[in-house]
Specification:
- The chain is α/β, with parallel strands linked by helices.
- The chain is about 30% helix and about 15% strand.
- It is built from 7 helices and 7 strands.
- The protein has a 4-stranded mixed sheet. It has a 3-stranded mixed sheet with strand order 4-6-5, with no helix packed on it.
- Strand 1 and strand 2 form a beta hairpin.
- Helix 2 crosses helix 6 and helix 4 crosses helix 6.
- The longest helix has 17 residues.
Length: about 220
């Protein structure tokens, strides 16, 4: 049996712990930065640099579906009326489909509430300038070297034969070569497409153009 003075002392100690023990009320920004690596597969943190999804550079306080220059929002998100604050970002990261049914974000969500809180804290810190997010990881194609700058593309049979500015030739099976466009500020110069390798064996690649009109005019059907 615990005597009254002892009970009083224990109660006082518990009260002291409540006020003295550190309380982690805010998210851990450092851990949130690690969690944000998942976002960077589809999003950039560079202002105005849109990828599969819109830039997250100034997401905090922004109305959903309104990032300037991003045109691929679902109608469901544009109609949602959401503003990206702490509560809405947490709900979105938990389950985008539950918060906005019919949206276009193919992301299952983050079940762990602590991780979501840390990621939300990081998004706020980036948006308000408290921390600087890393580069989005995409190359600046305007600075492509001669080994990547494409000067000619010939098509014959089932193959594309590319010549680069270093005067080397590259041959790809037609199914393994993709043609893309990048109209952003870091996309290629007009009329100067860039070769980007992909695949472990070096047998796959993409040629990135400044605009789609260049693709058909650049490729010549020629076998000799």
């Amino acid at each position: 049996m615990i005597r009254q003075p002892a009970r009083d002392a224990m109660a006082a100690a518990l009260v002291a712990l409540v006020f003295i023990a550190p309380v982690r009320a805010e998210g851990d920004i450092a851990h949130g930065a690690q969690a944000a690596r998942t976002c960077m597969a589809c999003h950039s943190f560079a202002p105005g640099r849109h990828m599969t999804g819109p830039s997250l550079a100034d997401v905090w306080g922004r109305k959903a579906g309104t990032a300037e220059g991003f045109t691929r929002y679902s109608d469901a998100l544009k109609r949602s009326g959401l503003v990206w604050n702490k509560q809405n970002l947490d709900a979105w990261l938990k389950s985008p489909g539950a918060l906005v049914p019919g949206n276009a974000m193919g992301f299952p969500g983050i079940a762990d509430g602590r991780t979501r809180a840390d990621l939300v804290a990081y998004l706020e810190a980036v948006s308000t300038g408290r921390v600087t997010a890393p580069d989005h990881g995409l190359p600046n194609l305007k600075k492509a070297d001669t080994a990547s700058l494409v000067t000619a593309i010939r098509y014959c049979g089932d193959a594309y034969r590319l010549t680069t500015a270093d005067r080397k030739s590259h041959t790809f099976w037609e199914f393994n070569l993709r043609f893309k466009t990048d109209s952003s500020t870091e996309g290629p110069l007009a009329g100067k497409p860039v070769l980007l390798g992909s695949g472990m064996q070096g047998d796959r690649a993409a040629v990135v153009f400044a605009r789609p009109e260049e693709i058909s005019t650049f490729i010549q059907r020629q076998c000799s």
